[in-house]
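Quick one, C-alpha cells below:
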C-alpha cells in the first residue's frame, strides 16, 4: 500500500464579498478578540469558500464571534452553497441570528436552520427552489429528485420542524411563505437545539460549580412575560434570552461572555466526511475499490478545531501483511521515522499528521500488487481516541 496523502490549504482573508468578516477591536473576558461574521445579499456559489476562509481564520486565532452567531440578512440564492455553509455553522457550534428589520428568505433560511441556537427577530420566508441553469427536459425528473433528496437529508440532519419540509416543498418559488411569530417559536427559531443546550449545560455546570437546574432557572428569569388578552392563564414571552445567554456564554450586560467550551487543545470534531476512489482523474464516492494495481482511493473530512495547527493520527489496516511505502518516492516505510510506524505483522501503518488548521483533511492511498484483497479499515485518531472510521472493501 502506498500513501498519497495531501492536505488542501485555505488562505484566510479579512474582507469578503457577501460574507463579511470584520475585527471589532475589542476583546472578551478571556482576552479573545471579538469579530463579526455576517452573510448579506445574494448567496453565491463562491460564498461557501469565502465563509470557509473566515471560519479558518477565526479558529486558527481563537477569535470570539460577536453574539456567538452568524448574522443573516439575505433574500437567498444558491442552495448548494447555503447547505455547505449551514453544515459548517453546525459543525463549528455557531448560532444564527436575524436582527429586527432584516430578513432571511429562501436559501438563507437553510443557513438559519443550521444554528446550534437560532434567534429570528426579523422575517423568515420559505418557498420551493428555482434555477436559471439550462438543462435537457428529460433530465428534469432526476435533477429534482436529487435536489429533494439532498434537501431532505440536510433538513433532517439540522432537526427542522416537519412543517418546514412542507413549506419548502409546496410553496411556489414565485411566492414566499413568511412565518408568523408563533410559527417561529414553534419551529425552534428562538432557542438552542437540545443537543447543544445539554452540551453547554454540562460544561457550564462543571466550570461554574452550579447545579444544572439553577442555571436553567436563571434562563427562565430572563423572560419578560405579558398577560395574554385571549386567555388569562396563558402567557406570551416578550423577550427571549439571546443565544449567548441560552448557551451560558455571557457574564456581563455587554454580551462579552465566559468560555463555556472545552479547552482549545482538546477540540477535534469531525462533522462531515466522504470517501471513494479516483477514476480518470475524478473522485467518485464509494466504499468499493476495484482490486487492481495502482488504484487510488481517498477519504476526506471537515473538522472543528482551534489553533494554528492540528495533530492527529491516521491508522490504515488491511486483511493481511503487505508492503507499506510512499507512492511519490517509492520509498518503503521502515519505522525509522517516528511519525510513520508499521505494525509488526505488517497489516497496518500509523501515520502522525501535523498540519495547518484549515478545517479540512484529505488523504489518499494506492493499492499495490502486494496488498491482500478484502477489508481496508482507516481510523482517524485524536489523543488516543478514534473519532472517525472509514471502511473500504476491495473486490
Amino acid at each position: 500500500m502506498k500513501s498519497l496523502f495531501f492536505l488542501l490549504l485555505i488562505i484566510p482573508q479579512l474582507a469578503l464579498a457577501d460574507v463579511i468578516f470584520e475585527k471589532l477591536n475589542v476583546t472578551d473576558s478571556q482576552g479573545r478578540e471579538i469579530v463579526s461574521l455576517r452573510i448579506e445579499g445574494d448567496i453565491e456559489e463562491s460564498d461557501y469558500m469565502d465563509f470557509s476562509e473566515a471560519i479558518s481564520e477565526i479558529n486558527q486565532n481563537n477569535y470570539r464571534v460577536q453574539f456567538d452567531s452568524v448574522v443573516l440578512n439575505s433574500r437567498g440564492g444558491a442552495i448548494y452553497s447555503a447547505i455547505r455553509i449551514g453544515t459548517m455553522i453546525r459543525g463549528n457550534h455557531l448560532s444564527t441570528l436575524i436582527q429586527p428589520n432584516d430578513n432571511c428568505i429562501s436559501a438563507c433560511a437553510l443557513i438559519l436552520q443550521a444554528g446550534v441556537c437560532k434567534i429570528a427577530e426579523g422575517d423568515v420566508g420559505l418557498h420551493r427552489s428555482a434555477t436559471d441553469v439550462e438543462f435537457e427536459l428529460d433530465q428534469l425528473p432526476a435533477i429534482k429528485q436529487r435536489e429533494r433528496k439532498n434537501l431532505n437529508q440536510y433538513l433532517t440532519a439540522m432537526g427542522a420542524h416537519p412543517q418546514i419540509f412542507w413549506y419548502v416543498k409546496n410553496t411556489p418559488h414565485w411566492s414566499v411563505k413568511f412565518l408568523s411569530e408563533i410559527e417561529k417559536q414553534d419551529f425552534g427559531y428562538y432557542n438552542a437545539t437540545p443537543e447543544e443546550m445539554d452540551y453547554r449545560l454540562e460544561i457550564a455546570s462543571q466550570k461554574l460549580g452550579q447545579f444544572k437546574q439553577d442555571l436553567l432557572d436563571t434562563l427562565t428569569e430572563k423572560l419578560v412575560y405579558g398577560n395574554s388578552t385571549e386567555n388569562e392563564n396563558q402567557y406570551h414571552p416578550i423577550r427571549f434570552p439571546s443565544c449567548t445567554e441560552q448557551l451560558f456564554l455571557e457574564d456581563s450586560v455587554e454580551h462579552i461572555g465566559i468560555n463555556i467550551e472545552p479547552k482549545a487543545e482538546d477540540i477535534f470534531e469531525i462533522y462531515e466526511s466522504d470517501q471513494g476512489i479516483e477514476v480518470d482523474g475524478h473522485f467518485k464516492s464509494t466504499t468499493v475499490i476495484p482490486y487492481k494495481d495502482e488504484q487510488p482511493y481517498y477519504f476526506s473530512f471537515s473538522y472543528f478545531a482551534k489553533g494554528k495547527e492540528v495533530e492527529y493520527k491516521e491508522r490504515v489496516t488491511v486483511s493481511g501483511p503487505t508492503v507499506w511505502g510512499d507512492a511519490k518516492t517509492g520509498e518503503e516505510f521502515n519505522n525509522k521515522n517516528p511519525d510513520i510506524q508499521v505494525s509488526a505483522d505488517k497489516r497496518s501503518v500509523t501515520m502522525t499528521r501535523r498540519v495547518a488548521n484549515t478545517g479540512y483533511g484529505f488523504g489518499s492511498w494506492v493499492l499495490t500488487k502486494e496488498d491482500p484483497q478484502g477489508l481496508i479499515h482507516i481510523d482517524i485518531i485524536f489523543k488516543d481516541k478514534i473519532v472517525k472510521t472509514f471502511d473500504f472493501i476491495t473486490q
